[in-house]
Amino acid sequence: MYQNRNILKGNILTIVKYKMPNQNIDSLIQDIRKDFPILKTGVIYFDNAATSQRPKPVIESLKEFMENENANINRSVHTLSEKAMLHFNESRKIIADFINAEENEIVFTKNATEAFNLLAYTIKEIIPKGKDEIILSEMEHHSNLVPWQEFAKRYNFKLKFIKITKDFELDIEDYKTKLSDKTAIVSITHISNVLGTINPVKEIVELAKKHNVITIIDASQSAPNLKINVKNLDCDFLIFSCHKVLGPTGVGTLYGKYELLKKLPPFNFGGGMIKSVTFEKAEYLDPPEKFEAGTQNIGEVIASAEAIKYLNKIGIKNVEEISSYLYNYAVENLKKIENIEIYNPGKGKSVDIISFNLKGIHCHDVASILNEDKIAIRAGHHCAMPLMKVLKVNGVCRVSFSVFNTREEIDHLIISLKKCQEVFNK
Amino acid sequence: MSLSMYKEQILELYKNPNNFGELNNFTHEYHEFNQICGDEIIVQLIIENEKVKDIKFNGAGCAISVASASLITDYVKNKDIKEISKLNIEDIKKLLGIEISPGRVKCATLALETIKRAINKEN
Ligand SMILES: Cc1ncc(COP(=O)(O)O)c(C=O)c1O
To answer: What is the pTM of this model?
Structure first.
């Protein structure tokens, strides 16, 4: 496997300023590719923002758990259960370390969407009196929108949306005018799943703190690409799905500051989250178990930690480096295509995700034609229908990269896109 | 590259679809959205004596949905509405003369489903 290679031992990659092509990065990617069995199907996979692919250690971990460790983690004293419990707890620690959180600040959910719902169903308890507004942005995924719409209906709150500039960035001035002492929550995506924009979440949190606002960050698209440090960001909550970070499906991560998790009421009730129960009432465990009712996705949580370990072995710095290497190459070459509309703020402000349309060709036709060349991209509204309204389109084509993508694959993408235009302009 | 879905005929119909536009004196109408992409289609019909006398469709769409809409609106003209209610994806595939990949079935059947809804809706 790649970790035995010298290239990862030194800091070679971080020193080299990438003039293209960068042979160090290219050969690192080639090593990484060997760990992704799905690439043997011949697919050129550019749909990593929807779900990433799984490297061998993750696949092996799932198998290993089922073959040698499977048991519930219900504090049984038999060996299998003890082993599973230990492994599960270690996994929580690994995932906590990944974003510089404490172990007891990590709550597992089914996915990012469920984590948002957990908050939307419990957060009312910790909102001070007199506050009745929630600030989101025009570029939120439905997961960070619809739960708040329901919340607003239930409690008679008002939703406000930070506007997007013509350069596809958040309009911070607009945010400042919307922020006030009436603001209860600011919930913002770190990286837009459509525009690829990296939002200045640290600044957004800082501004919010002045008005005693609860801050939530959707890290679904940033966790796979950027180093995340919740202590440095100082946000109250942060959410991501492990299936976008090379892990299996079925595991969402909710980070919350411990004192806030203590104050939130539980979301689901039942086994696994109680200290003691009588026929009349129950006393609940402390966080994070308080929020983890019922049998967890044990094997998948353990495999998610394997995914994080895998990323750590590559090195988050190298992951960031690969991301911008591929992004820069793709964006430069996409720009050269005639009659293309690119919805992206550009180098330095974006990473990993690029959305576009070929003028006069429906995004689903583009995706189907690329599919005939074994290139997997996503087309449509990307669970961001209000954003599509703002962009004045019905849908867009989106490419999103991961550590195993190559420049040659991007070359194929460009060739196929040109073929699309030939087919339609005949 | 085998452009299995994007045959000449389909692209032709996409650029110049038949029955595209609006009817002034329609008796039945339905607006529908393609769940996959959010594209909107509007179908208007004139139905007399349980038969489709005229039909038009409107809206934006992909090549597959527009070509299918063009073909199916041609096909249902002068047909009995009972007969129309029995049509399905297999009939669309025959009209298109291509295989439809599973992800695009909704695009191919959008116009047909909208026609059925228009017919069943009380106007
Ligand atoms: C920005 C963003 N937020 C939330 C989600 C929801 O993630 P999941 O479907 O895993 O709940 C996604 C995934 O598409 C996303 O891109």
So the answer is: 0.91
The Å distance, Cα A393 to ligand 1 centre, comes to 21
Query: How would CATH label the architecture of A79-311?
Result: 3-Layer(aba) Sandwich (3.40)
Q: What is the pLDDT of residues A84-128, one digit of tens each?
A: 999 999 999 999 999 999 999 999 999 999 999 999 999 999 999
Distance CA(A389)–CA(B102), nearest Å, equals 27
Its domain, for residue B111, covers 3-119
Instruction: Confirm or reject contact between A415 and chain B (CB < 8 A).
Output: no
- Which one, of A259, A235, A220, A233, lies nearest residue A115 by Cα? A220
> Please, where in chain A does CATH 3.40.640.10 lie?
79-311
Task: State the count of interchain CB pairs (< 8 A) between A and B.
Answer: 57
Please report, for the domain that includes residue B67, its CATH number. 3.90.1010.10
Contact with chain A for residue B61, Cβ under 8 A: yes
Q: Render pLDDT for A374-400 as a digit per residue (tens, 0 to 9).
A: 999 999 999 999 999 999 998 999 999
Measure the CA–CA gap between A39 and A35, rounded to whole angstroms. Answer: 9
Distance CA A272, CA A75 (A): 10
Q: Which of A118, A138, A193 to mutate to test the pocket of ligand 1 (most atoms within 8 A of CB)?
A: A193
Which one of 3.90.1150.10, 2.40.50.1070, 3.65.10.10, 3.40.50.460 gives the CATH number of domain A317-424?
A: 3.90.1150.10
The answer to whether residue A242 is catalytic is no
B121 touching chain A per CB within 8 A: no
Residue A137 — φ and ψ, nearest 5°? -130, 170
- Count of structural domains, chain B: 1
Strands of the sheet with A396-400, listed across from one edge: A340-343, A353-358, A396-400, A378-380
What per-residue confidence (pLDDT) applies to A2?
36
ipTM above 0.90, yes or no: no
Identity of residue A384: A
pLDDT in tens, B25-50: 999 999 998 877 778 899 999 999 99
Quote the tokens at residue B30.
């339905």
* Ligand 1 lined by A398 (C-beta under 6 Å): no
SS3 B34: coil
Domain(s) of CATH 3.90.1150.10: residues in chain A: 317-424
